[in-house]
């Protein structure tokens, strides 16, 4: 592919990334069913539920559920897309809410109102020349599938997901070329309710359950790839990893081995989706931990014959590990992936390590491993943004973060890494997936909404808005 003098290829897709459950709101409007995220409140109950301790299959009185209104993108998408177009977006990564299409997940027929909403949304993007990059499952499962079937514990979800995928592929075959199956599929191991709608019973072997659910998702992903290629012959269908290189704290071989094993926890999913088979190290891990994967006849052929076209990944930070108990005491506070604090790196307000060089390392690592095109579908800085006396947000810290990461991404491209595009996370302020907060802001566009759900929803441009516009106009040449 021809490159501009700055290194980025011509046709590189610049844009932003959002998720239905963090933006749309309208949580029961037009026939939509409850999703798992609709049962995630703010406050102290949130994290235990994310780990699989769900107290109720209905919203509880006295709790605030930020997904129920989010930033009201459902009613304001035209306004928001116009702002994205003003920045020059060539792509927008977004997700379809499964429960808007099949409210219960096992419905005989899809919900036409839900299908029409995404028709209208894709038409609006097309009007502005913005390519949709669509995730089928972004941390939401219809609640009925959790309550009635045990979510991805149950093999029946493969069939429900395949039906959902075929429905949207058929409906949007002329409007969407780029697809992703599961968002950050490796998150299943760390936040099992978020990643797979898993709710654990007392005494249940959680590790066994997680890896069996992972197998079901991997087969479902492969069947979605199969269906996508059959229904949309020119489609590009990818997987997605929550990525970030794990460094060894020291040259102690035990630390180096531990770092490799930590990386393999995540690579496992992409190894299967990209290479089409379970890696040998997973077989050893299952044996050592007494895990037995229940596979049906034909599963191995499905996985082998329907691998992904590209690797989507998020990058926010690198990780650090050690086998020394004293070193392990110094951990970061905000990273879902437990990590030792890196003395060479700064942290965000939420304790996330800021490591631009790690972005280049991670991109090279993924490309060396899979030799398939990469798509950076999340990267950004969550921070508290304050309005000044003029009602403006001077978010120079965000510009600095993004500039440093984009420079390293450019170096990765110059290293020979094939990168399709870059959609920064949260181009407009959205509900935080991890904390449910609004004050943890990522956007180029400020949304008047607070942690308690108060505010006008009005949008206003931050300083980073015009900066990112210049980046896109120059295809990454102007990063200053």
Automatic annotation (TrEMBL):
Catalytic residues as annotated in Swiss-Prot or TrEMBL: 378 (nucleophile)
GO cellular component terms, semicolon-separated: cytosol
Keyword set, alphabetical order: Glycosidase, Hydrolase
This protein's record includes keyword Hydrolase: yes
GO molecular function, one term: beta-glucosidase activity
Top-level taxon: Bacteria
UniProt key word Hydrolase: yes
One family name in Pfam for this protein: Glyco_hydro_1
GO BP of this protein: carbohydrate catabolic process
Entries under Gene3D superfamilies matching the protein: Glycosidases
PANTHER family with a match to the protein in the record: 6-PHOSPHO-BETA-GLUCOSIDASE, GLYCOSYL HYDROLASE
UniProt record similarity statement: Belongs to the glycosyl hydrolase 1 family.
UniProt-recorded name of the protein: 6-phospho-beta-glucosidase
Protein's organism: Oceanobacillus limi
């Amino acid at each position: 592919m021809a490159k501009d003098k700055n290194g980025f290829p011509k046709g590189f897709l610049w844009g932003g990334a959002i998720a239905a459950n963090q933006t749309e709101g309208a949580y029961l409007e037009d026939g939509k069913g409850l999703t798992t995220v609709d049962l995630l409140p703010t406050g102290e109950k949130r994290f235990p539920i994310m780990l699989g301790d769900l107290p109720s299959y209905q919203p509880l009185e006295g709790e605030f559920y930020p997904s129920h209104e989010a930033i009201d993108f459902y009613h304001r998408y035209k306004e928001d897309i116009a702002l994205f177009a003003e920045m020059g977006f060539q792509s927008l990564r977004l997700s379809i809410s499964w429960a808007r299409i099949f409210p219960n997940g096992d419905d005989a027929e899809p919900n036409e109102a839900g299908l029409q909403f995404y028709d209208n949304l894709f038409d609006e993007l097309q009007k502005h020349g913005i390519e949709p990059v669509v995730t089928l499952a972004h941390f939401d499962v219809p609640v009925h599938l959790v309550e009635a079937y045990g979510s991805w514990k149950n093999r029946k979800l493969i069939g429900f997901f395949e039906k959902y995928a075929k429905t949207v592929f058929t409906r949007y075959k002329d409007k969407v070329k780029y697809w992703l199956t599961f968002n950050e599929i490796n998150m299943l191991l760390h936040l099992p309710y978020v990643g797979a709608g898993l709710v654990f019973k007392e005494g249940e072997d959680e590790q066994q359950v997680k890896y069996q659910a992972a197998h079901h998702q991997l087969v479902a992903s492969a069947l979605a790839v199969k269906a996508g290629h059959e229904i949309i012959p020119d489609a590009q269908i990818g997987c997605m990893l929550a990525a970030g290189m794990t460094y060894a704290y020291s040259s102690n071989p035990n630390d180096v081995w531990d770092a490799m094993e930590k990386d393999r926890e995540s690579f496992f999913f992409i190894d299967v989706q990209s290479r089409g088979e379970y890696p040998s190290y997973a077989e050893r891990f299952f044996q050592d931990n007494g895990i037995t994967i229940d596979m049906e006849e034909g599963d191995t052929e499905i996985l082998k014959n329907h691998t992904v076209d590209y690797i989507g990944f998020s990058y926010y930070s690198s990780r650090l590990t050690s086998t020394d108990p004293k070193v392990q005491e110094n951990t970061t506070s905000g990273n879902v992936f437990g990590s030792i604090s890196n003395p060479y790196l700064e942290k965000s307000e939420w304790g996330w390590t800021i490591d631009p060089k790690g972005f280049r390392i991670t991109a090279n690592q993924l490309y060396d491993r899979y030799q398939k095109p990469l798509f950076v579908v999340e990267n950004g800085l969550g921070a508290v943004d304050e309005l000044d006396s003029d009602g403006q947000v001077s978010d120079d810290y965000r510009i600095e973060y993004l500039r440093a990461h984009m420079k390293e991404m450019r170096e990765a491209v110059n290293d020979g890494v094939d990168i399709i595009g870059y959609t920064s996370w949260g181009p407009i302020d959205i509900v935080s997936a991890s904390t449910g907060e609004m004050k943890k802001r990522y956007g180029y566009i400020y949304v008047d909404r607070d942690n308690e759900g108060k505010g006008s929803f009005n949008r206003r441009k931050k300083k980073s808005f015009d900066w990112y516009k210049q980046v896109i106009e120059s295809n990454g040449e102007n990063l200053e």
